[in-house]
Design brief:
Number of domains of chain B: 1
Strand order of the largest sheet of chain A: 1-2-5-4-3-12
Helix content of chain B: 55-70%
CATH class of the largest domain in chain A: Mainly Beta
Strand content of chain A: 25-35%
Strand content of chain B: under 5%
Shape of chain B: globular
CATH superfamily of the largest domain in chain A: Rod shape-determining protein MreC, domain 1
Number of helices of chain A: 5
Number of strands of chain A: 12
Distance between the termini of chain B: 17 Å
Number of helices of chain B: 7
Distance between the termini of chain A: 54 Å
Number of strands of chain B: 0
Helix content of chain A: 25-40%
Radius of gyration of chain B: 15 Å
Largest sheet of chain A: 6 strands, antiparallel, barrel
Structural class of chain B: mainly alpha
Number of domains of chain A: 2
Oligomer: heterodimer
Largest sheet of chain B: none
Shape of chain A: globular
Chain lengths: 281, 157
């Protein structure tokens, strides 16, 4: 016994090294179930504050670009409404004006205060939290399309996984003919993603738009994801490998909207009763 | 210095990447500049907490911590490997204290180890092996460059 202690004491550096590495790896593998990890993420108040104050400064230098973005979105919304700028007729609540969302979705505006594009699992942090009504598993979009989904919230900040995350995929469809598959990022280029599960007999051409299918509870139907860049027949299976140019420029997003699906629990209950416990998105 | 390096890393350098390819990680400088005579267990613990601090800000629990701990563990073998026995070494690693040739060798070896481990752990497969290899090589060069630059700009005599 004493020899054992002496051995450990003699090699204490090595054992400490092993211990710390094992600890790190426990963190890494637990994070695969990212929903379970309650600590060490950027929704915490401290990291949120740091990112918040810095991004305010950063955003200041990007004001021209942000203004352009916002005015383009204004113009788009006005054309959907068909109202020529009479403020009295516009509802002041944040009810969705997207084509197919019959008052099922609420939109909460937020600002991205931290965002990465260079890792395999990319995350973002928002400056709104549970006090503003944000809950985990809400979708995040911009005027240009889908950005990600909220995973953690603190009272005044929220963090989420971005579409640029190899462990997450979105239910998507080709808007021209309605065939659906899943859009997944392959971890290579932040501007491109892959659309899988589209069978060979479907007629595709470059430039087709890819939108959300509406089958998931996170996003309304018809939110833009990107356009088809190229497609090829993969070896072995009956599905195309389709390369999609993402409509959102993930390096230049700042203002987003968080989507609350009012009927989410209702839909989930019914899906569960069907025996398909899993909701994949 | 710890706080400054962590903030520089998470606020500035995490945003830096050229085509999603080059990511410098200069927070390792904190571990590299620790006095040579510091007990090894302290180096390991400091490495762990430095990595964890970066992880906390970048939603990657354990990733940077494990890479930095590995680097902290290999620090003293690398120091004894690269140091000539006869020459008197300063206790504080630095371009001006210990000579640029030794310093660049020392940081290059450790940064290479750290970056390779980090990038391969991040991808977590040997798929696209050469892509990841190239990524870590390019980022290593970038990190070493910034560290040497910082020696001229900030850590002057």
């Amino acid at each position: 016994m004493r020899n054992l202690f002496r051995f450990i004491l003699h090699n204490h550096v090595f054992f400490l090294f092993l211990l710390l590495e094992i600890l790190s790896f426990i963190f890494i593998f637990n994070f695969n179930h990212y929903q379970k990890v309650r600590f060490l993420n950027t929704s915490s108040e401290i990291t949120g504050k740091v990112y918040d104050s810095f991004s305010k400064m950063y955003d200041f230098f990007r004001l021209p670009a942000i203004n352009r973005e916002l005015s383009a979105e204004n113009a788009r919304l006005r054309s959907i409404l068909g109202v020529s700028g009479t403020p009295g007729e516009i509802a002041d609540s944040l009810v969705s004006h997207y084509p197919s969302a019959d008052y099922q979705f609420n939109f909460i505006p937020a600002r991205i205060i931290n965002n990465t594009v260079n890792r395999q699992q990319n995350f973002l942090t928002l400056d709104k939290g549970s006090l503003d009504g944000i809950k985990p598993e809400m979708g995040i979009i911009t005027a240009n399309g889908v950005v990600g989904i909220v995973t953690h919230v603190s009272p005044s900040y929220a963090s989420g996984i971005s579409l640029l995350n190899t462990r997450w995929n979105v239910s998507a469809k080709l808007s021209r003919n309605g065939y659906f598959g899943s859009l997944v990022w392959d971890g290579k280029d932040y501007r491109k993603a892959l659309l899988n599960d589209i069978p060979f007999h479907v007629d595709i051409s470059a430039g087709d738009t890819v939108v959300t299918s509406g089958y998931s509870v996170f996003f309304p139907e018809g939110i833009l994801l990107g356009t088809v860049e190229s497609f090829e027949k993969g070896g072995g299976d009956n599905f195309y490998t389709i390369r999609v140019i993402l409509s959102v420029d993930f390096k230049a997003i700042s203002y987003v909207e968080v989507i609350e699906n009012i009927r989410k629990s209702e839909i989930e209950n019914i899906t569960r009763r069907n025996g398909t416990d899993e909701i994949t998105d | 210095m710890f706080v400054t390096l962590v903030l520089i890393q998470v606020l500035l350098l995490n945003q830096v990447n050229f085509g999603g390819f080059l990511n410098p990680y200069i927070y390792v400088l904190f571990i590299l500049l620790l006095p040579v005579s510091l007990p090894r267990y302290q180096v390991l613990l400091l490495s762990f907490f430095t990595g964890l601090a970066i992880d906390w800000f970048s939603n990657t629990p354990g990733l940077h911590a494990s890479a930095t701990v590995l680097m902290g563990f290999l620090r003293s073998p690398v120091i004894s490997m690269t140091t000539q026995r006869e020459s008197e070494q300063s206790d504080y690693p630095g371009l001006h204290h210990t000579g640029w040739r030794w310093f660049v060798t020392y940081i290059s070896i450790l940064v290479v180890i750290h970056h390779f481990f980090l990038f391969f752990l991040d991808v977590f497969s040997f798929e696209n092996f050469f892509r990841t290899l190239l990524r870590s090589m390019a980022s290593t060069v970038f990190t070493v460059f910034i560290i040497v630059l910082s020696q001229f700009l900030i850590f002057k005599e």
